[in-house]
Amino acid sequence: MRRRCCDSNGDSTFPSDLCILGKLFSWKHFNAKAMMANMKKSWNPSKGLEYSTVVDNLFLFKFNDIVDKKKVMARCPWAIDGNLLFVSDYIGKFRNQK
Questions:
Q1: Are the CB atoms for 76 and 89 separated by under 8 Å?
Q2: What angle do CA 6, 11, 14 make, to 5 degrees?
Q3: CB within 8 A of 29, min separation 6: which ones?
Q4: Residue 23's Cα: distance from chain center in Å?
Q5: What's the whole-model pTM score?
Q6: Which of 58, 60, 56, 51 is nearest to 29 (CA)?
Q7: How far apart are CA 62 and CA 51, in angstroms?
């Protein structure tokens, strides 16, 4: 039985081992789309990356390749415009694959 990570509406679409949770620590307003463009450029995932906003400043990143995810996790910590982006394996809400 393989566990899968769920997006904000509860849909189970990605294996949990391909997901990370990211929290941006910032007091100022920022553009999430611009942040994601910067992260994609910095992370340079070979097989793509998607993200969804969980709540303000909290994001679920979904990789298409475990090597890309491991590369990001190994190169922590991350900063965006001087603000810390803390990333962690996603171990939150799981749904078993049927």
A1: no
A2: 55
A3: none
A4: 9
A5: 0.75
A6: 56
A7: 6
Classify strands 58-63 and 19-25 as parallel, antiparallel or unpaired: antiparallel
Tell me the C-alpha distance between 54 and 72, whole Å: 20
| Sequential pLDDT tens for the chain (98 residues) | 344 455 445 555 557 789 999 998 887 777 778 888 888 888 999 999 898 888 888 889 999 999 999 999 999 888 887 888 899 998 765 444 44
Task: Give the three-class secondary structure for 81.
Answer: coil
N-to-C CA span, the chain: 8
CA nearest to 53, candidates 40, 44, 45, 62? 62
Measured CA to CA in angstroms, residue 73 lies from 26, 69, 96 at distances of 20, 6, 24
